[in-house]
Amino acid sequence: MKEQKQTTKSLSRRNFVKTAAAGLGASALAGTAAAPIESAQGGAQVPKRWDREADVVIIGAGATGLPAAIEAIENGASVIIVDANTDVGGHAIVSGGNIALGGGSARQQKYGVKDSPDLLFSDLTDWSVVEPNGFPDYRYNDKEIIRAFADNSAATCDWLVAHGVVFVDKTPDNAGAHATGNSAPRENHAAPMQWPQMQTGVPVGPDKAATTSSGIGFVRPMEASARKLGAQILLQHRMTSIVRENQNSGRVLGITATNNGKALSIRARKAVIIGTGGHSSNVNFRRIFDPRLTEEYQTMGEAYSTRDASGELAAMALGASLWGAYNQTGEFGEALSKAGRIGSREGYVNLNWMPESPVFSRAGSTGLRVADWQNVILVNQIGQRFFDETKGQYPTANNYGAIKPYVAGSYLNAANIKYDPASFLNAALAGTGEAVNGGGPIWAIFDADAAKRESWNTAPPDVDVAGGLFFSGNTIAELARNIVNKYQKKPMPPESLQDTVAKYNSYVDAGKDADFGKPAPKYKIQAPPFHAAWSTPVVHDSRAGLRINAKCQVIDLNGNPIPGLYCGGESAGGFSIHGIARCAVQGRIAGREAAKL
Fold this sequence. Notes:
Blueprint: H1 2-22, E1 52-59, H2 65-74, E2 79-83, E3 98-100, H3 106-110, H4 117-123, H5 143-162, E4 187-189, H6 216-229, E5 232-235, E6 237-246, E7 249-259, E8 262-274, H7 283-286, H8 310-316, E9 322-323, H9 325-329, E10 336-337, E11 341-342, H10 360-363, E12 368-369, E13 377-379, H11 412-415, H12 424-428, E14 443-446, H13 448-454, E15 470-473, H14 476-482, H15 494-510, E16 530-534, E17 538-539, E18 545-546, E19 553-555, E20 561-567, H16 580-596
Parallel strand pairs: 1-2, 1-8, 2-5, 8-20
Antiparallel strand pairs: 3-4, 6-7, 7-8, 9-18, 10-17, 11-12, 13-14, 14-16, 15-16, 19-20
């Protein structure tokens, strides 16, 4: 009876993994980004022959994997890194390069910033910190994981400098910070220096090389250090399974992978480290945490790489547990954001793809950055407005000085905050009344005069016409009829869009938006041609993932470490912070601990 029960559990786990893996179909849009992961399901038989071997095998050459490789080698281990992409870096390479490391780093001391590991730990576990919309930033963080981060944060900042990362020479601040703690500024900014940027194909100008921030300034020094130390980086090698002695027992032995259609097996004499970047591109997996996030919601940076949940799925097939689900669902920071660049697939306001980028063909367009939301109205697929267009890009998150006065653990931290529901994204995802999940496409509607005011070019490469993300018409009715997008469940009714525009124009005359309170609507939509630009919210952070402990060991559903399996960064759960910092710290911890085995 016991054996039959165990078999049923194993089959259920495999069935779940297959279902979640199926959600990767949408991410095939990204080219070198993930193909369907039918085999990233774990439970593979032990190979009779290993094609390669190293002490530590790392899955993913990004913000977790590269620091893990360096740390493992410096602690005496040999390392192989596999990555499915044609280059290293993952999402970090197209990020803003903002790295929230504190706890009393040399950089903080240089600028007179008072911080310590204990203060950092206190900040990132403070139950009393709540955003104006009622969501807590830190209440559900795993204290064991946060303690390890706090104790290793300052050392990691100094370690990055020692390994070639150049930080912009200014006091740590809040730029790009989300959920980094109230008591001290901790955000550092990696300078791009001479490295060509992935999103533009060229370096920034000499005057900006050391004064602006970019993920390239983190990734390339990490890559150079790893290669110099002897790490073998196998690009275009897609992990297909993690091999364990038995599916639900024994130690992890290595991985299987494919390279240009050829299967190979790679032995890990000591350990395997998962650094695959999270799950936000995997539609079925991300809907574990939010059923609304159906396939129309694209993910920031997918033109370069996807967060395909491949590491999570492979580990779960071996019995690994998920962890920290609230941090994914909680409405604070950048798990989900309003589209700030319209007419482009990704739409993320801080990522500007340019035609010179080596992956621009997959990005599709640069997008039109909206300077003034008075110039557009936003409508759903039935042609109706749903909220004040001027409202926020994404929910707020706690940072240095956000609560004043601040006393750790005091109920007054929340009592003194003015409530603001910050409901734009929820309204956008609410849908159009049908009994289906997902809000459907959102369109920015504007006219020729608005394009002039914004200095927009309404033609490729600035907008993605071929991808069905930008449409035009000489009348509002014609515009509605022209909108044909693969994510729409039904055509937009021309009469509905006409009524919406006419009503909005009357609000401009009246100086008051009677529906949604948009402040003093300024501009009528009346000068042809009229345009509709894709403006659907964008998925960003993965903040829930595999359960790990302070040593970054992956934990199974019984609360026990899976021997020889480690994880860090956005594939790991239990931590609400945004950005590269947790990836770098946990990568180092995982690399160090793996090398000790």
